[in-house]
Amino acid sequence: MYFGVLGPLLVRTDTGVPVAVPDTKVRLLLLDLLANLGTPVSADRLIEDLWGSRPPRNATGTLQARVSQLRSALDRAEPGSRALVQHGPAGYLLATEVVDSNLFERYMRAGRLRQALELWRGQPYADVLDHEFARAPREHLEGLYLTALEHTDDVLQRTTALLPQRPLDERLHAVHLKALYRAGRQHEALRAYADLRAALSEELGADAGPELAALHRAILRHDPSLQRSPTLPAPLNPLVGRADTLAVVQQQLATNRLVTLVGPGGVGKTRLALEVGRGIGTVLPELGQGGVRLVELAALRDGDVLEALATALDLRDESGDLLPRLLDSLRHRELLLILDNCEHLGPADLVQRLLVSAPGLKVLATSREALGVPGEQVVEVPPLTPAAAAELFQARAGITEDVTAICERLDGIPLALELAATRVRSLGVQGLAERLDDRFRLLSGGKAGPERQRTLRATIDWSWDLLAADERRMLRSLAVHAGTFSLEAAAQVSELPEQVLLALVDKSLVVATAGRYRLLESIAAYSLEKLDPAEEATLRQRHASYYLGLAQQAELHGERQREWLHRLDQEVANFRLLPPSLELANALAWYWYLRGRYGEARRTLAAALDLPGQPPALRAQAAVWLAGMTATDAQGTDVAAVGDSALAAVGDDPHALWFLTMTRWAYGDPGVLSERIDRAIAHFTERDDRWGLAAALSTRAQLNIVHADLDAMQRDSRRSLELFEELDDDWGRLQATYALIVAAEISGDYPTATAYLEDAVRHAEDLGLWTEVSFRTAGLGRIAMLTGDYARADELHEQARRLAVEQSNKSAEEYAEVGLGLSARRQGRLDDAERHFSMWLPWLEQVGGTPGIGFINNQLGYIAEQRGDFAAARRLHERGLELGRRTGDKRAIALALEGLAGATEDPGRALSLLAEASALRQQVGVPLPPAERFDVERVISRARR
């Protein structure tokens, strides 16, 4: 059965037959259940919603009659559908997910905006505009609708058509004003704002709201934030002479999933691919904003392709095998992936696997040749026509002279034209033409290889001959870098002044982008050929020495943390070129940890530890890092033994004690971990190591969560936060506030917990620590659930879950999924809750998550009890009790006792168990806050009855 609320009420069978719902009150009842989809609605509330302050004499009986009418209407249309209207202890529930509003939100989450908008038939819940029960879901859907409108290509036309129907809707006007501004019609936007202000004053006696007023000010000052954020590099110059080819590529992408641009080096494949990506909304509007990712492969080797894909997709690297997680991350996404410069890697098998696993994925590749994947559509990118080549050359050289002969000699290759144009200032058109004559005769035959390669080589050879000796040395030295590099790196590795590099930028042989530099692919390959073995060995040694020194001087603690994280992010490709060494692995280990690149850390540390003849101190330090990184993914590893072995090698080193405790605090033996962290704190205090002390205190606060020792948690956390504030360490702030958040939550101080969580989300986003963003967002979802805002709770937990999946972080995903389960159980959706909980038990068993296993067993016990299966409930709660006693967590023991109270049919026994649980909670000073007494109050009520 299909239900529609995006406009007037719509009901039809699975085969599309309309279903008549008789009687106004029956339709009102159905709309009420749809507005509260997934949440039981009590009879009292339904009576109030249907009849307001004038209910019928026998209101309950009349409501039951209306429910019967609704069931009969559904059943007549499709036998068996009466079961969709369910009744339970919490009230009435419509058990369906096939609602246009659900589909609308699903399309929105996937970025399929065009399909979402096609579902929109008018104002949501149009039949009940004057009923309060529909107000919140209507506003939520209308907000999503405006978001979708804002990111469609025809937003201006759509908002213009809607405004007469909603002349005073400020949110709609805001979208319309932005659309006018982005269309270059600033004056019209300002006039429309003035008209709205006048209408608001005349009709409502009010002025425009603060958000609309802020938008007006932004339009006045041409605020850059009004422009859509680009997902691809912005072009410096307009695309010339590619309109026909561009149209062909767009047409092929509209109907095929893999399109490969082929052609000679320098012909403009990359430039064309980026142009296609920037205009993809006109061809594939369902991708939505941000539906394009660029993966530049030119600087990579075969083994680095998966890492590059994971980085482009913001996928967290935490295990050795990236491919399954990469496929899982893409499986449900709508995305265009641009793979640039594929020819040297031969990624045909990988591309085929990506396409097979991800039905919403399209790939646009650039290569010297076809990939050879079934279903591939190949588009040849030809040289520019003579007219287009002349237009390009004249534009780049800033001249109007006739350059037809030069363009013909350069075969219309855009790269050759760009390079040649830079010399017009010094040689003039005639001098340039004379030099080209000499060069083409020199390379006119006798060498193997395709003609297009010889033509491009002629262009580069010509540029090379025009360089001074120092410029040639610099260009050769730049070839040993990967990806982009800094001005300082170029000077250090080449041992030449920075001005030599800047001269090459002026001559268009080096590309400058956002304060960094890179070589075009063909220039890099050409320069490498110019290196003799001895010179290359020297340059690579200098390159390794420079980047090792950079890693060792990185300040990832304190006020420069953000700056150095960004700088190391820029140098990842160069670090990956270096041979394995303990010095490099130890220098980068904390960076890898902060960025969540545990898999890369483990691989590099293990490779370095396998090298013979390494200093014992460096080996011991690397072993500690490796043990800590192993603790983040314990599958198949005796983590405790690895950690003990590493500690034995370094002795009583406080940093090792802290790190190996911090990475295992939620899974290891509490007694062992507590003893270690106390020793670390003593050593840090003795050494006056403020950063180490702050970190260790935050970890001890987390260890005390198990015992719910609020005083210890708050004391250590506040001291830790105080120290990290003095050090201006944002990662430390996140660590220090974690236990404070937990303490506030279990004490029922939700405003304080929310303030800490919102601040943590801001800091984590600023640092790019997306797993932390996921955890803290799920934390906000917990608070929303505890305060009764289930819609917000589900939204936040789902947002956190999706982010965790994209980061491939199982721990964060489990935390968010459990939150969805808690919310579902509170709302009476027991099947959903059971699914959310049960799926994580195998993983928790693998990683040794004893507290989590106990908690989930208790939640499953509550579900069994709510279904009336008391025997199953007792078994599950007894398992939770056993695990709680094993960890010594009195709050976990109390939770299990409360569950057992609900699972007994003896009222006296139930109240006795509740009293025992209450006494335990009082012992640790954290009685259940009112918002967490959901199950206890149910048990008390039943026992008293």
From TrEMBL:
PROSITE patterns: OMPR_PHOB. The keyword Ubl conjugation does not apply. GO terms for biological process: phosphorelay signal transduction system; regulation of DNA-templated transcription. Keywords: DNA-binding. It holds the Pfam family Trans_reg_C. GO terms for molecular function: ATP hydrolysis activity; DNA binding. Residues 1-96 bind DNA. InterPro entries: AAA_22 (IPR049945), BTAD (IPR005158), OmpR/PhoB-type_DNA-bd (IPR001867), P-loop_NTPase (IPR027417), Sig_transdc_resp-reg_C-effctor (IPR016032), TPR-like_helical_dom_sf (IPR011990), WH-like_DNA-bd_sf (IPR036388). The keyword Glycoprotein does not apply. Residues 1-96 form the OmpR/PhoB-type domain. Belongs to the AfsR/DnrI/RedD regulatory family. This is Putative ATPase. It comes from Kribbella jejuensis.
